[in-house]
Each structure stands twice: as C-alpha cells, then as structure tokens.
Specification:
With 362 residues, the chain is an alpha/beta fold. It has 9 helices and 13 strands. The strands form 3 sheets. It has a 6-stranded mixed β-sheet. Helix 3 links the parallel strand 8 and strand 9. The structure holds guanosine-5'-triphosphate and magnesium ion.
Length: 362
C-alpha cells in the first residue's frame, strides 16, 4: 500500500502511478483494469505539437476581440476591449483546442450554433495566435502539455522565505518553463516579515550568481511591493508557486479591488489550494498580473534538453551531454552545490521520460 508523507496531497503526479488495488476486492480491481483498457483504446491522443495548433482565426476577423480572464468548466469569463466582462461558452469550432488564461479570442455576441438556453449565449469562435505560451509537462498523451498562461511578458516564481518550504528543484523547473516560453524570470521571495533580515533561501544563491532578478517582498508590511510594481511597468506577469506562498495576497497588495480569496496553511505547513483557476487581473495605472493555483511541482516532461545549458551555466558543456555519467558525491568534481548536479540529472531524465500510461513504456 502506498503511503503518503504528512502534508503530501495526491496530486496529478500520483495519478500517474495507478491506484492502490490492495484495498479493493480482487473482482473490483479486475473490473477497474478492464475499464482502464477500454478507456485506453477510446481516448483521443494528441501529439505534443497538434495540441498547441490553433485553427485559422481569419474567417472570424469581423467579430470583436476579448481576453480570456478565467476558465470555468462550462464557460469562460472574457474581458472586452472596453474592460467590461462577458461570460461566453466555447463554440464547437474549437473542439480539441485548449484555451488558457490570457488568450486573445474572437467571440460572437449571439450563438453561432445551438447552445443550451440556460447557458450564456455569447460564443468564443476563435483563438488568436499567442505571443507567448507558458506550459508545463502533462500527465499523459491525452494531454502532453498543461497550458498555464498565454500572452504573458514575464514569469514570476514566488517562494516563501518560510512556510511552505520550497521543494528542491522547483526554481530550476521554473527556469526551464520560462526559457521555453521565452519569458524573463523573476523570483519573488514572499513573507519577508516572518524572518529576520539575515535569513534567506540558500537555493537562491546560484540564481543570484546567474543574474536572475530576485525581489524580497512582504505583502503584510509592503516591503518590496512598490519596487516590484515599478519593475512590472505596463507588462503582463504570471505568478506561479506552491500553494500558500502568498501569490493572491501579493496580487491583492498590488490591486486591493481585486479582493482575491486568500487562505491559511494546514497544520502540516502546506497551502490549501485556495485559488482554483488562473485569473487575469489588469491593474489600475497599467500592467497586468495573472494569479494561478498553487502547484506541487512543475513537470518538464517533453521539454528540450538543450535548455538545461542556460539553467546550469556553471557546469561544463560535456557534463550536459551526459550528466548521468557523473556522480554528485564524487569529491574530485569539487562541486559547490552537489544538489545542483542531482537536480540537473533529475530534469535531464524527466525531459525524455516516456508516458507512464503508455503500453509498453519502459
Ligand atoms: N506574514 C505574512 N503572511 C503572508 C504574506 N503573504 C501571504 N501570507 C499568508 O499566507 C497565506 C496564504 O496566502 P495566499 O495568498 O492564499 O497564498 P497563495 O499562494 O495564493 O495560495 P494558493 O491560492 O493556494 O496557491 C495566507 O494566510 C496569507 O495571509 C506575507 O507577506 N506575510
Ligand atoms: Mg491563491
């Protein structure tokens, strides 16, 4: 039987590994297996490129544009050009297309095809080409990527100086995602008021050496918030990080009218997944923030290993050709941060990992 450490929730990662059959009767687990096999033949598989392809929006050029502010299960919230909000469903023309927060779309105020009268009548018919797309590796071939935010200019990875603890490798993973999306990365250290000036996250040292922008902030006493606002200017930033690090609290500090729901921590010191969907929030006086739900980790499955050279610039080129040949415990390597090599090895392997649900996966 699989055991979970305290505070470790069952996230998407765990779903990959099958379920605990020992608790169930044998017949029930057989039934489950048969159902899984049936599902495997029925599911629509997407290869990683097809999933990102958008249908031609040209035929809809006469319709108005809007920004996707938030996705719900049956509809989406849109922000129109005049900043007013509109709720719309997705037309069947977009079947198979994944939309995400920040997408620029064209919509028809009246339905272009039959729609349930109980649902909103406006319909999104096209998605415009994206300036940028922040994504992470998906769970399986039905969804090779999980789309996080479209059309952002910057990625802000938020890490609390205390509570919840930063998982090893999260910063490097965020760097991979930012590089893939072509977004500059900022590290936002939150909850500075909780610790003394000298205390810091040691994981930040290698990033500081690389010249990554690091902002020390406290939403509680306002430390660093004005400087961060100035750094944002009129651009669009997407905030990501573990649940409970204070992303929504920071957005509220930027934009009190946003009045986003914020949550406490569990008794295990982890967040509560207070934010459940990514949300686009234009700020008074320019700039836009995209708040997102807390993440446990960021999968890099399917990303290009070539990106790792920029994430780990301290390692010689030949190490990056086959990092698995190295032993992080080898004293001759004279490593300042041996955990950085371990992290490189983990990312390297995960990038080429095969879909764990695929038949015959090795
Ligand atoms: N002391 C202190 N507490 C903070 C600060 N920022 C956030 N918090 C607290 O941290 C808890 C979590 O904050 P949220 O803003 O909900 O965290 P989140 O990152 O949005 O979490 P999810 O929506 O679950 O991803 C709340 O109890 C906040 O009051 C800060 O700067 N200082
Ligand atoms: Mg939140």
């Amino acid at each position: 039987m699989k055991k979970y450490r305290l505070g470790q929730s069952r996230g998407a990662e765990d779903l990959d590994r099958g379920t605990d059959a020992s608790r169930e009767g044998r017949s029930q687990s057989k039934r489950r297996q048969r159902r899984a096999e049936r599902l495997e033949t029925d599911i629509e598989r997407h290869d990683s490129e097809t999933m990102l392809r958008l249908p031609d929006a040209g035929p809809w050029a006469h319709l108005p544009e809007a920004t996707l502010v938030q996705r719900h299960s049956q509809w989406v919230d849109l922000e129109r050009e005049d900043r007013s909000l509109l709720v719309a469903t997705l037309s069947g023309k977009l079947k198979g297309v994944k939309l995400c927060c920040g997408d620029r779309v064209r919509y028809s105020p009246q339905p272009v095809e039959a729609v349930d009268p109980k649902l909103p009548q406006a319909q999104v018919v096209a998605v415009l080409p994206r300036r940028s797309l922040l994504k992470r590796g998906g769970i399986d071939d039905r969804e090779p990527w999980q789309l996080m935010a479209a059309n952002a200019d910057e990625l802000w990875i938020c890490a609390a100086v205390v509570d919840p603890p930063l998982r090893p490798g999260l910063l490097e993973r965020a760097q991979v995602l930012a590089l893939d999306a072509g977004l500059p990365l900022r590290v936002i250290v939150t909850k500075r008021d909780r610790v003394s000036k000298q205390d810091t996250l040691p994981e930040l040292d290698p990033l500081r050496a690389q010249g990554v922008a690091i902002h020390e902030t406290s939403a509680l006493n306002g430390e660093g918030v004005a400087a961060l606002k100035a750094a944002l200017g009129g651009r669009i930033a997407v905030l990501i990080g573990h649940s409970g690090v204070g992303k929504s609290t920071l957005v509220n500090a930027f934009h009190p009218e946003a009045d986003l729901r914020t949550g406490g921590l569990t008794k295990f010191g982890t967040g509560r997944q207070t934010t459940t969907a990514a949300r686009w929030l234009p700020l008074e006086g320019g700039g836009t923030l995209m708040d997102t739900p807390g993440i446990r980790t960021l999968s890099v499955r399917g990303f290009d290993r070539g990106l790792l050279a920029s994430v780990f610039p301290e390692f010689p080129g030949e190490w990056l050709e086959d990092p698995m040949a190295l032993d992080p415990e080898d004293e001759d390597l004279d490593l300042e941060f041996p955990e950085r090599l371990q992290s490189l090895q983990r990312l390297w392997q995960e990038m080429e990992e095969r879909n764990p649900n695929q038949r015959g996966a090795k």
